[in-house]
Amino acid sequence: MIMTNTTVKQRSLLGLKGMSQPELVSILDRAAYWDAHTEKQVSVLQSRFVANMFFENSTRTRFSFEMAEKRLGAEVLNFTSAVSSVEKGESIYDTVRTLESMGIDAGIIRLKPSGVLQELAEKVNVPLINAGDGNNEHPTQGLLDLYTMRQEFGELKGLHVAIVGDILHSRVARSNLWALQTMGVKVSFCAPNNMRADDMGDVSYISMEEALQADVVMMLRVQLERHAVGMLKSAEEYRLQYGLTEERAARMKKHAIIMHPAPVNRNVEIDDALVESPKSKIFPQMQNGVPIRMAVIERALRN
Ligand code: CP
């Protein structure tokens, strides 16, 4: 099948900003379909080639995409920049064009810088799925987070989600904000002054005490690798002011849940004992990453 540029654009997933409510719901519904599917492997994407192009480290996203592709019967190519010609100075664009010229049908891409993915997607003729670009967006993480909340509460509309921590550097906070607001969810942020962002519209910053009263307390990883020197005085001080400690978690609402995109800095933004506590949905989030990515890849490739 030859796809037109419009079709390629429509099948790509660069971000959740601007995605309509029906489209979000259709992806979540299709993920639910795959979640309930007992057959481990199907041939829906037989003879379709998908390249996982990770220019930045990943465990969850990379392996759940690969799992999703293989469950759908696709042929999978894994590209890792550390063992590629990127190490010889080849650009991201030339790398993607190289794989495109070899005949891939779709590309999953994770990038360190923000703001280059849009331009890249306009230059290639295969659908691209954003697996996290800088601090811009991480759409499949946002979708799996919505899916996890819907699984827990049935309905998203009317929920209050407090996102706590390093908002400034968080593509997860951005993707969640755009999609949750579209779904009628109230989103609040809680962050130290030097980790707040001013590019995300009119979102209220609340205290840690107020955040504990939300239906979902979503903790973010302190992204030390993206910090300027001196941004974090000490891990212990951060934990005392903004960490979800056992004592704080005990003050959450009875029905409320804890989320975190992971990887987790245990005993910094969240106490070790909470990671696998009954309120925590951290591992179910990871589990939900597979059906969500199946739905997104299928959307990108199915005739
Ligand atoms: N949540 C997430 O994106 O994890 P990875 O960096 O391991 O993919």
TrEMBL record:
Catalyses which reaction(s): carbamoyl phosphate + L-aspartate = N-carbamoyl-L-aspartate + phosphate + H(+)
Broad enzyme group: transferase
Gene Ontology terms: cellular component: cytosol
Molecular-function GO terms, alphabetical: amino acid binding; aspartate carbamoyltransferase activity
EC number: 2.1.3.2
UniProt pathway: Pyrimidine metabolism; UMP biosynthesis via de novo pathway; (S)-dihydroorotate from bicarbonate: step 2/3
Xref: InterPro entries: Asp/Orn_carbamoyltranf_P-bd, Asp/Orn_carbamoylTrfase, Asp/Orn_carbamoylTrfase_sf, Asp_carbamoyltransf, Asp_carbamoyltransf_Asp/Orn-bd
Domain of life from the UniProt record: Bacteria
UniProt KW keywords: Pyrimidine biosynthesis, Transferase
Limits of the Aspartate/ornithine carbamoyltransferase Asp/Orn-binding domain: 157-297
Free-text function comment from the UniProt entry: Catalyzes the condensation of carbamoyl phosphate and aspartate to form carbamoyl aspartate and inorganic phosphate, the committed step in the de novo pyrimidine nucleotide biosynthesis pathway.
Family: Belongs to the aspartate/ornithine carbamoyltransferase superfamily. ATCase family.
PANTHER family xrefs: ASPARTATE CARBAMOYLTRANSFERASE, ORNITHINE CARBAMOYLTRANSFERASE, MITOCHONDRIAL
Protein's UniProt name: Aspartate carbamoyltransferase
Organism from which the protein derives: Paenibacillus nuruki
